[in-house]
Specification:
mainly alpha; Rna Polymerase Sigma Factor, Chain: A; Arc Repressor Mutant, subunit A; 9 helices; globular
Length: 194
């Protein structure tokens, strides 16, 4: 019996054949785990996130139309799941810190600067063109090198370097317009700005 294609398995799962998930899991669990591990740097967190990705796959597999390779679609789902995990972790930490600050009434000024800095960074990232933003996130946030980025997006390493340069230059301009010195210093320390 010939193995089913990824598209056929995805269609079967979206139609309710949950048993087909095992085949996709066998094909892609190492790839998903690798992406999660690279992004988190923690084995147990990557294992948990791998499980979360396949749970999300059950919910979203009906959105896979077969326009691209399934591995590309699953890669994007994985990255989004990990980023959502990071956002939720940050929100939980911010909430805990906020509760602590409100309880002790100490350090409100520095915490408010952190919130303003985070909002400014999110707004500046949103202003970047999608190509530059994607390369910036892959390189400076997720830690990919230019060759890996070029392979993911299907363009040259020179294009990747150019997009990163453009993203950093535009971020620098956007962030230096209205931000305090502490924010610019923190961004430079991250390596996002020279």
């Amino acid at each position: 019996m010939t193995p089913q294609s990824d598209y056929e398995l995805a269609q079967a799962i979206s139609g309710g054949a949950i048993s087909c998930l095992e085949d996709l899991y066998e094909r892609y669990n190492k790839m998903v785990f690798g992406v999660c591990l690279r992004m988190t740097g923690d084995v147990s967190e990557a294992e948990d996130l791998t499980q979360d990705v396949f749970i999300q796959l059950l919910k979203k597999v009906g959105t896979f139309r077969g326009d691209s390779r399934f591995s590309t679609w699953l890669y994007r789902l994985t990255v989004n799941q990990v980023l959502m995990h990071f956002r939720n972790s940050i929100r939980r930490r911010e909430s805990c810190v906020l509760e602590e600050l409100i309880g002790t009434r100490i350090g409100k000024h520095s915490f408010s600067h952190q919130i303003v800095d985070r909002i400014a960074l999110d707004l500046a990232l949103a202003e970047l063109p999608s190509g530059s933003r994607s390369v910036f996130v892959k390189f400076d946030v997720e830690g990919y090198n230019h060759q890996e980025i070029a392979d993911i997006f299907g363009f040259s390493t020179g294009n990747s370097k150019s997009q990163l340069h453009k993203a950093r230059r535009k971020l620098r301009k956007l962030l230096e317009l209205n931000q305090p010195q502490s924010f610019r210093t923190a961004i430079r320390r991250m390596g996002a700005m020279p």
